[in-house]
Amino acid sequence: MPRVTEQGGLAEGVIKARWAKARDREGWLSLIGKVIVLLVALWLLFSFVFCLHRVRGNDMYPAMQDGDLVLTWRLQGSYNQNDVVVYRSRGKELVGRVLAKEGDVVDLTDDGQVTVNGTPESNEIYQTKAEKAVKFPYLVPKGKIFVLGDFRTQATDSRKLGAIPTSDVEGVTIGLLRRRKF
């Protein structure tokens, strides 16, 4: 009789050990499943709602400099004056400030004064000069925006590219991370 008790106790210990392993395995599978769901959610958020871009060049100097990272909101339906947007043009990703929307008239005088619908621009840091690609006064076409960089003497913007189709806008910047000397 004592042997039966020992064997029963041994079998019970083996069963408990196997249940413990199964619970551990179940815990790991649950953790892996949660991590996968989190990664898919982050991928969806950063594919369709937010986007992270690296600023290349100094078109928006001093607000943004080469190497900075900007977080953009992709779900913006319309763009307002002074929104800083990331857009694609000629295969490049550029950053600029919205100066005018469709239907607005942009004028650039010989002395560098920028006006939108007859009102002088108030955010001008650097003097603006006209480029030959756009004739002023310029009426912004439907479905487009007129974008200028803050560093007007060196920026590639709507003065060289013309108005930017809103479909080429990647998003409106909502955050900035300074990334110097990396």
TrEMBL record:
Q: Which domain of life is it from?
A: Bacteria
User: Which molecular-function annotation in GO is an example for this chain?
Assistant: signal peptidase activity
What reaction(s) does this enzyme catalyze? Cleavage of hydrophobic, N-terminal signal or leader sequences from secreted and periplasmic proteins
What subcellular compartments does it reside in?
Cell membrane; Membrane
Every Peptidase S26 domain range: 32-173
Tell me the membrane topology, using the record's own terms.
Single-pass type II membrane protein
Q: Name one GO cellular component term.
A: plasma membrane
Principal localization reads: membrane
Q: What class of enzyme is it?
A: hydrolase
The answer, when asked if Oxidoreductase is one of the entry's keywords, is no
Q: Which InterPro entries match?
A: LexA/Signal_pep-like_sf, Pept_S26A_signal_pept_1, Peptidase_S26
The name of this protein is: Signal peptidase I
Record organism: Parafannyhessea umbonata
